[in-house]
Amino acid sequence: MNEGRVSRGAEKALGIIGIVFNLIVIASTIFLITNQDTFQSSPEFQQIEEEIKNNPSFANPQDAQAAADAFAASFGAVGWTLFALLAISTLFAILALLNLRRDKNPKLAGAFFIIAGLFAGILSLTSILFYIAAIMCFVRRAKRPRNDDTNYRDIDRDGRSDDLSRRNDDTRTGGTGSRTDDALHKKEDTPYRPL
Fold first, then answer.
1. Number of domains composing the chain
2. Which of 13, 68, 156, 175 has the lowest CB atom count within 10 Å?
3. Where are the stretches annotated Disordered (predicted)?
4. b/e map of 163-186 (b: 16 or more CB within 10 Å)?
5. What is the greatest pairwise CA distance in the chain?
């Protein structure tokens, strides 16, 4: 019954794992952004600021203070940028999973997985999972149904199926349903050619 379909369970599983990883990083990023004031007052952050201020490459202390302030201000911007990129990645991964539903359009799903991988970070763990799912979407194809005896149709020399040739023979013989001996021998002499 499901001949001609490929089970896309592996691609779906990789996509779901990638989405879960994205959501974990998104939640962590939001947590860090909302607790930015706490992080900036921590001893680790104070130590980083002191190292920036004591850097001998700065000519005066005002430049060092400006660099430390820029570092503190960029923390939130980097966090929101990471949040936006991972949200876009998650959206494309969800679109890919929707296209894998009932093996609807695996090539489009593969393209969505590639885009999701690019937005998740070109070589992060999540992006590698999305790339593997994309490759599987492009490579795995449905198997052709096996041709057993019930799928073969008898074809005569003119390329007509058995049913069509019988109807034509019936009209030639007057509709009695019997064939002449020549037509019968002609039918037996033809090689058996499957579709």
1. 2
2. 175
3. 149-195
4. eebbeebeeeeeeeeebeeebeee
5. 112
Token pair in block for residue 62: 């005002």
Q: If you search the block for the tokens 């064939």, which residue do you land on? A: 179
171 assigned to some structural domain: yes
| Alpha-carbon gap, residue 64 to 3, rounded angstroms | 69
Question: Residue 100 sits in which domain range?
Answer: 9-139
CA 88 vs. chain centroid, Å, equals 15
Same domain, 72 and 26: yes
Output the pTM of the full model.
0.61
Q: Is residue 129 part of a domain?
A: yes
Q: Is 58 part of any domain?
A: yes
> What is the C-alpha to C-alpha distance for residues 133 and 95, in angstroms, rounded to an integer?
13
pLDDT at residue 190, rounded to an integer? 58
- The rounded distance, in Å, linking the Cα atoms of 168 and 110 is 49
d(CA 176, CA 140): 52
144, part of any domain: no
Q: Check whether residue 117 and residue 184 sit in a common domain.
A: no
40/117 same-domain check:
yes
List the pLDDT tens digit at each of the 195 positions of the chain.
455 677 888 899 999 999 999 999 999 999 988 887 777 777 877 787 777 777 777 777 777 777 777 777 787 888 899 999 999 999 999 999 998 887 788 899 999 999 999 999 888 899 999 999 999 999 987 666 665 544 445 554 555 555 555 555 555 555 554 455 555 555 555 566 666
